[in-house]
Amino acid sequence: MLSKIRDKLSTWVIGVLLLLIAVPLIFMGLGNYQSSQESYAFKINDQVISLSQLEQEVFQYRQALEKNFQGNLPPIYTTKFIRNVTVDYMLRTILLDQASRSSGLVFHNESILNTIYSTSSFRDDGGFNKEKYLSQLYQIGMNTSSYERYIYQKGITGQLQDSITNTAFLTKTEKSDLIKFRHHKRNVSYLIHDYNEIKDDINLSEQDLRDEYNNNLDIYRSPVYAKYLYLDIDKNDLIKNIKITDVQAKRIYDSNLDEGLYVSPITYKLNHVIFDTEKTANVALRALKSGEGFDKVAVEYSTDTETLENKGYLGEFILADLPDYLSSIVVNLGTGKISDIIKSNKGFHIIYIIDQTSDAVNSFEDLKETIIKDYKKETGTREYFDIIDSMTEMNFTKKYRLTELADKFNIKTIKSKFISKDEGHGIFDYEFVRDGIFTDDVINDSKTSDLIYLNGDRFIIAELDDFMDSNQLSYEDSREIIEALVLNQKTNAAIILHSENVRDDLNAGISDQFDNLSSFVGTIDSSDIDEKIKQLFFAVGPSNGFVTKKLGSKDYIIFGVNEIIYPEDIKNIENAEDYYNFAYNTRSESEFNSFYGLFRSSAEINMNDDYMSRD
């Protein structure tokens, strides 16, 4: 129960708002981006996500991860891994939104307002605080319309999910089938075609190479190179450079003291139990009032896992950290008092205040560093957005040179190294940044670029400094590249053709490869074979016959499931009941995922495979 209550906690911070609200807004199409029909990352039904848009999402996700891991990302978080996770999230968000809207689901204005008004980070002791609401949104670069669209989208997709997850159950037959399926064995025959072995057998003629060159002259050109002058505006640098004296900090402290801003909230130490039925709750309440302890009552009457684990002890909380149905009781209960039964959508609760602190005014010395930090953050953030507004307005006409903008805003110009459209250094290593500066306006007309946002806290604006045009490369200069490209093309074609021919012959029973097949017999838990290959084995059935799949190493595997062997008696399966309990408790989510998989499979999704396969 503790985690369920903590889900309701209200101590949001700006960083959480940014990750949970601002970033998903971009996935929902609410970010300020343009999609290119020519350079797309993926297309989903009628919606196109451009390479530059995906690059920006990947960049922001990486920034959030680096902040979370304090700059030390685990090795698993490669660019390719982060890109795949980002694409999966974007696909899921877009599809859920499309499915919800096509189902006619709505989230009324009143529901949107109620959600906003009840959000703890927008409230103070007097209830909803409009200024606090606007301030929180301002600090993450959002406006009210964007946030309301976010609430609307979350509302309708939430309804879609609830309509499925709230109706799931398992029959006895399903329970038996589920456990048997979880512990079944598979007998698989397979053969792996080695990419490098096939490559070694490929012969390239001089004519092959010259044909490739002559038919694709546009490919074999030197890149366009350019140097840029640019301004790099980072909100965190602005915050760091804000000056404030102790005298100013004391003045802020004194001005806010009378408003009760520096009073520590009361902390409540609580016992808590929850019950499935009101009848059980009444029996437990009588036991508590007769002197029985919360620890004994929790064990004797509650079925809630966390209540049992914590023996009726909830923890220490301020009122804002509790859901409304508990905080409204706690504030009037008094120390050493047992509440009446409290009904909520979670069940029937009884709480008891073990102890509580008194409110106290924090001294200036205790708060000085916090006041200084908050002042610098608020002032620097305001300055950052003022620069954005003013610079956007000045840059709209493209009449100002970069040096004029630098002088106006007192920002130092920086000179880049030579970079190409396809390769850069530092911040220019990101494709969406290069897309923003290799434009006709910047290259041909010597105008400043638009403001290019690296994340919510940083943007650049650039101007051409030097330029080197593309030149046609000679056949001799291109030969090494041509040879590698043609060899790769011919090897890919050969391994695909060879694998498909072997597969077809195996399915027809006329192959000479039957004696060369390897065998796997095992469960999903088997550890004597590569994990990715094992996942492939458990993704198809015997009716598929022999199939071919490309492996991450560029090798191809041909395999067929000969037999699926189910256990006859589930009573002899170790930990079967544990797995059933897990499956039952997560069944609703599994049902929803199955539903999601259904409409994902029917969606028209076109991925840019060449781009997605890049390391």
Spell out the blueprint of helices and strands.
Elements lengths: L1 H5 L7 H14 L12 E5 L2 E4 H18 L10 H24 L6 H10 L4 E2 L2 E2 L1 H10 L4 H22 L6 H11 L2 E9 L1 H6 L5 H10 L9 E10 H7 L4 H12 L5 E2 L2 E9 L2 H12 L4 H8 L3 H5 L3 E6 L5 H10 L8 E3 L2 E10 L3 E2 L2 H32 L6 H8 L4 E2 L3 E2 L10 H7 L2 H4 L8 E4 L2 E11 L6 H34 L9 E5 L8 H7 L9 E4 L5 E10 L10 H10 L1 H15 L3 E3 L1 H4 L3
Antiparallel strand pairs: 1-2, 1-20, 3-4, 5-17, 5-19, 6-13, 6-14, 6-16, 7-12, 8-9, 8-11, 10-11, 15-16, 18-19
Helix pairs in contact: 2-3, 2-7, 3-4, 3-19, 4-7, 5-7, 10-21, 11-17, 12-17, 13-14
Describe the structure.
The chain is of the alpha+beta class and 615 residues long. It has four domains: 9-171, Orthogonal Bundle (Triger factor/SurA peptide-binding fold), CATH 1.10.4030; 185-219 and 474-565, no CATH class; 225-246 and 365-468; 263-361, Chitinase A, domain 3 (Roll), CATH 3.10.50. Helices cover 50% and strands 17% of the residues. It is built from 25 helices and 20 strands. The strands form six sheets. Strands 6, 13, 14, 15 and 16 form a five-stranded antiparallel β-sheet that branches. Helix 12 crosses helix 17 (364-395).
Name the features.
single chain, 615 residues, alpha+beta, Triger factor/SurA peptide-binding fold, 4 domains, five-stranded antiparallel β-sheet, four-stranded antiparallel β-sheet, 25 helices, 50% helix, 17% strand, flat, disordered N terminus
Terminal residue distance: 43 Å
Tell me how many strands there are.
20
Q: Summarize the main sheet.
A: 5 strands, antiparallel
Low-confidence stretches: 1-38
CATH superfamily label of the largest domain: Porin chaperone SurA, peptide-binding domain
| Overall 3D form | flat
